[in-house]
Design brief:
There is one protein chain. Helix content is about 40%, strand content about 15%. The chain contains nine helices and ten strands. With about 280 residues, it is α/β, with parallel strands linked by helices.
Length: about 280
């Protein structure tokens, strides 16, 4: 696996490479703009070039951009929907400029309208974003924790999106260990996890699995509560090694999205814990 973390890009998007290099990571995930506002960042094009150069210098094996958490591609509210579509398109454009491997996004919530109604909103939105992708930069659906009307809580829902978009050649999947666990998939059980991966291969194709989020969980199995915890501190604990050990998941970027010791996100200590757990998982 290419172990990495979500890091800040404060000071210019190229600075994310400095941060992940200092942490000892092999892959990196960034926001392309502030996650707290709709307003896109006015990037200096020189920083895109510097990002690509620094990535090569640091030997970072995979780059992932995460779309805004604000985005809801299933929103029944037209103004919110339109802002969501534009924000995703902007993220894809920036990701392409830095030659990122993927844009990971949360589909959103149908807010009680039902999955089919949500699908009618999501499909044309994703079609627009996919037009801006390239052979290098894919769009990856992230499985959700399953709270409320969120879409993507199950393999059934991800497969339905995949089929509705005619199996688009640049549409992929990102699996989050915490989200899987709280939506009812026991990632600490070899048979359960292997069964999920087998079904994913049958219905979508494992070649479409482009990214992993490696997070412990504060919330129990099947609770549908999205509460990430630091490596080793949550309910997955040492058993997160099952997720890390599966042969079918090797070679993928495995990104930390944990709170860190001070609540400011992944740090060098969490990266070291992930490396140690991974080494034990494959030994």
């Amino acid at each position: 696996m290419l172990l990495g973390a979500h890091v800040s890009s404060s000071g210019g998007i190229h600075t994310a490479i400095d941060r992940i290099e200092a942490m000892g990571g092999e892959s990196v995930q960034v926001f392309t703009q502030s996650p707290r506002t709709w307003r896109p960042t006015n990037h200096d094009p020189a920083n895109f070039k510097r990002f690509v150069e620094r990535r090569a210098e640091a030997g970072i094996g995979a780059v992932v951009c995460h779309a805004l958490y604000l985005i809801n591609l299933a929103s029944p509210k037209d103004d919110f929907y339109e802002k969501s579509v534009e924000a995703l398109k902007n993220t894809v454009d920036v990701a392409g400029a830095i030659e990122a491997d993927a844009v990971v996004f949360h589909v959103g919530s149908h807010q009680g309208a039902g999955f089919e109604a949500g699908l009618e909103r999501v499909v044309p939105a994703l079609a627009q974003a996919l037009q801006r992708c390239s052979e290098t930069t894919w769009l990856c659906m992230e499985n959700s924790a399953g709270a409320g009307g969120t879409i993507g809580r199950s393999l059934d829902e991800l497969a339905a999106l995949y089929e509705a978009l005619d199996r688009h050649p640049r549409l992929g999947v990102c699996l989050d260990s915490c989200h899987l666990f709280v939506s009812g998939y026991d990632v600490t059980d070899h048979k359960a996890l292997d069964g999920l991966l087998y079904e994913l291969d049958e219905r979508i194709g494992l070649e479409r699995l482009r990214c992993l989020h490696v997070n412990d969980s504060k919330a129990p199995l099947g609770s549908n509560r999205d509460r990430h915890d630091n490596i080793g501190d949550g309910l997955l604990g040492e058993n997160l090694s099952v997720f890390l050990s599966r042969p079918r998941l090797q070679e993928l970027p495995a990104i930390l999205e944990v709170p860190g010791k001070d609540g400011k996100g992944p740090d060098a200590e969490q990266m070291q814990k992930l490396k140690e757990l991974y080494t034990r998982s494959i030994s």
